[in-house]
């Protein structure tokens, strides 16, 4: 699959999951060094916000917006995933006074499982949103066609609310 970065096509590596099928499993660490797996989240709706680099304007805005609007939805677990290091994510949260579940995909496990790795960008993850239902089925996905633009927040939140 291809997306664009400021109009230039970039190839994604891996196979993108299909809505209506079981979401690919993952096992990532959060900023408190606790392992988070998809299996551990069964029974809840999971909204996964994926971004290339927390230290950029659009990624910062995306993370703030989902933290503001999705973090307070009862029954929805919000995860933010990037290839940023644990330290970069902790620094961003501290600088912005935000306490949220941030997962770092250092080894690229999530990137490959969800078909989001961008080799041209040091295997950073393509901007995307996934919503997984209480049974582990992928209910919604948006892989943003132009990496430098924000996802459709309203569509993602509506899809999450529909599962509650």
Helix and strand topology:
Layout: E1 2-5, E2 8-11, E3 27-30, E4 35-37, E5 45-50, H1 57-69, E6 76-82, H2 86-96, E7 102-104, H3 109-113, E8 117-118, E9 124-125, E10 128-132, E11 138-143, H4 153-162
Parallel strand pairs: 5-6, 6-7
Antiparallel strand pairs: 1-2, 3-4, 3-7, 5-10, 8-9, 10-11
Order of helices and strands: EEEEEHEHEHEEEEH
Low-confidence runs = none
Question: Ends: how far apart?
Answer: 31 Å
CATH architecture: 3-Layer(aba) Sandwich
Rounded mean pLDDT is 96
Structural class: alpha+beta
CATH superfamily label: Glutaredoxin
Which keywords apply here?
single chain; oxidoreductase; Tpx_Peroxidase_subfamily; 4 helices; two-stranded antiparallel sheet; Glutaredoxin; 164 residues; alpha+beta; 24% helix; antioxidant; Alkyl hydroperoxide reductase subunit c/ thiol specific antioxidant
Fold and architecture overview:
The longest helix is centred in the middle third of the chain and has 13 residues. The protein is an alpha+beta fold. It is globular, with a radius of gyration of 14 Å. A hairpin with a 5-residue loop joins β10 and β11. It is 24% helix and 28% strand. It has one domain: Glutaredoxin (3-Layer(aba) Sandwich). The N and C termini lie far apart (31 Å). The strands form 3 sheets. A 7-stranded mixed β-sheet has the order 4-3-7-6-5-10-11, with helices on one face. It has a two-stranded antiparallel ribbon with strand order 1-2. A two-stranded antiparallel sheet has the order 8-9. This is Alkyl hydroperoxide reductase subunit c/ thiol specific antioxidant. GO terms for molecular function: thioredoxin peroxidase activity. InterPro entries: AhpC/TSA, Thioredoxin-like_sf, Thioredoxin_domain, TPX, Tpx_Peroxidase_subfamily. It holds the Pfam family AhpC-TSA. Keywords: Antioxidant, Disulfide bond, Oxidoreductase, Peroxidase, Redox-active center.
């Amino acid at each position: 699959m291809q997306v664009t970065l400021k109009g230039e096509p970039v190839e994604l590596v891996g196979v993108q999951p299909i809505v209506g099928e079981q979401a690919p499993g993952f096992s990532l660490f959060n900023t408190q060094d606790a392992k988070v797996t998809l299996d551990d989240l069964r029974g809840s709706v999971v909204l996964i916000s994926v971004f290339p680099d927390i230290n950029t304007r659009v990624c910062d805005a995306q993370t703030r917006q989902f933290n503001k609007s999705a973090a307070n939805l009862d029954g929805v677990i919000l995860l933010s995933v990037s290839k940023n290091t644990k330290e970069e994510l902790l620094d961003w949260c501290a600088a912005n006074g935000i306490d949220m579940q941030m997962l770092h995909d250092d080894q690229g496990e999530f990137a490959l499982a969800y078909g989001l790795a961008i080799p041209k960008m040091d295997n950073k993850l393509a901007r995307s949103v996934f919503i997984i239902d209480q049974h582990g089925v992928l209910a919604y996905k948006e892989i943003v066609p132009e990496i430098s633009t924000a996802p459709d927040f309203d569509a993602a939140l509506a899809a999450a609310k529909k599962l509650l």
